[in-house]
């Protein structure tokens, strides 16, 4: 191969790999969603995943929300006092949390805690041939393993986001009103006058989309652990793919946050 042809070869090779990977993930998504309509549905597995993804993430989401709200309260008072507008603190804290920080930070916390675990679980089952064994027994691995995780994430993440918003607003109230002396009436009056149904719907739509992205990427990376370039073999491959799943989930959440805001705002 000539020197000038090597870059073209590597470029074409990488493009083909990316297209093949996108195709695999697309087929994986269709199979996972099709599992919703197959019977018997695994209700106990759904409850188990709801407990793991939803209940298990409450602590990290709670403390992330409280610290974010308290910091917003501090910075909000510092900034708004320069313009004599500290009465707008409630409006600023609530809108920031409901439209942006709530959906984003909740999705990132779930991706780091539950997404990585789901990817590792599926990846280990793949390399130890447990998924192959399910297929040999005529058990659909998507209905058995993947679909309950999809459904649990799509139910849990919006509820966690709602909890994040409430706890974050309380954190902003605690700092701004109780510690720094902003009027309690102006805090709630500004919040109630500025937050609309459209703002709440935007945050809700984002949380659904982010949940979908996190569970799709996390389970898909684990399922295709043996086909991902550079992942290696055995435990090393699961480790690398788990890291990749968290990074891709986080980047996807941030990209889709901008796209959804641009389209729906």
TrEMBL record:
Listed InterPro entries: ABC_MlaE_roteobac, Permease_MalE
Record has Transmembrane helix as a keyword: yes
Protein origin, superkingdom: Bacteria
GO cellular component term of the entry, any: ATP-binding cassette (ABC) transporter complex
UniProt keyword annotation of Membrane present: yes
Spans traversing the lipid bilayer: 15-37, 49-72, 92-111, 150-173, 200-224, 245-264
Membrane topology classification: Multi-pass membrane protein
Compartment list: Membrane
Main location: membrane
Assigned keywords, A-Z: Membrane, Transmembrane, Transmembrane helix, Transport
NCBIfam families listed in its UniProt record: MlaE family lipid ABC transporter permease subunit
Listed PANTHER family: ABC TRANSPORTER PERMEASE PROTEIN-RELATED, PROTEIN TRIGALACTOSYLDIACYLGLYCEROL 1, CHLOROPLASTIC
Entry's family note: Belongs to the MlaE permease family.
Protein name: ABC transporter permease
């Amino acid at each position: 191969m000539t020197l000038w042809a090597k870059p073209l070869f590597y470029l074409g090779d990488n493009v083909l790999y990316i297209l093949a990977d996108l195709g695999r993930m697309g087929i994986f998504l269709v199979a996972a969603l099709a599992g919703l309509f197959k019977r018997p549905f695994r209700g106990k597995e759904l409850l188990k995943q709801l407990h793991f993804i939803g209940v298990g993430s409450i602590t990290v989401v709670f403390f992330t929300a409280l610290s974010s709200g308290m910091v917003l309260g501090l910075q909000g008072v510092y900034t708004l006092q320069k313009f004599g507008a500290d009465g707008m603190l409630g409006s600023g804290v609530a809108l920031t949390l409901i439209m942006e920080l709530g959906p984003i930070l909740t999705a990132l916390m779930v991706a780091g805690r539950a997404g990585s675990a789901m990817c590792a679980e599926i990846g280990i089952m793949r390399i130890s041939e447990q998924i192959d064994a399910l297929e040999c027994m005529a058990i659909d691995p998507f209905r058995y393993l993947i679909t309950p995780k999809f459904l649990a994430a799509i139910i849990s993440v919006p509820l966690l986001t709602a909890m994040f918003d409430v706890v974050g607003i309380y954190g902003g109230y605690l700092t701004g009103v109780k510690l720094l002396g902003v009027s309690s009436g102006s805090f709630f009056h500004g919040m109630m006058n500025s937050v609309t149904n459209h703002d709440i719907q935007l945050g809700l739509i984002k949380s659904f989309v982010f949940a979908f992205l996190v569970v799709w990427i996390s389970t898909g990376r684990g399922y295709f652990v043996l086909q991902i370039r550079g992942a290696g073999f055995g435990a090393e491959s699961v480790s690398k793919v788990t890291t990749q799943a968290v990074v891709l989930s986080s980047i996807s959440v941030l990209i889709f946050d901008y796209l959804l805001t641009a389209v729906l705002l």
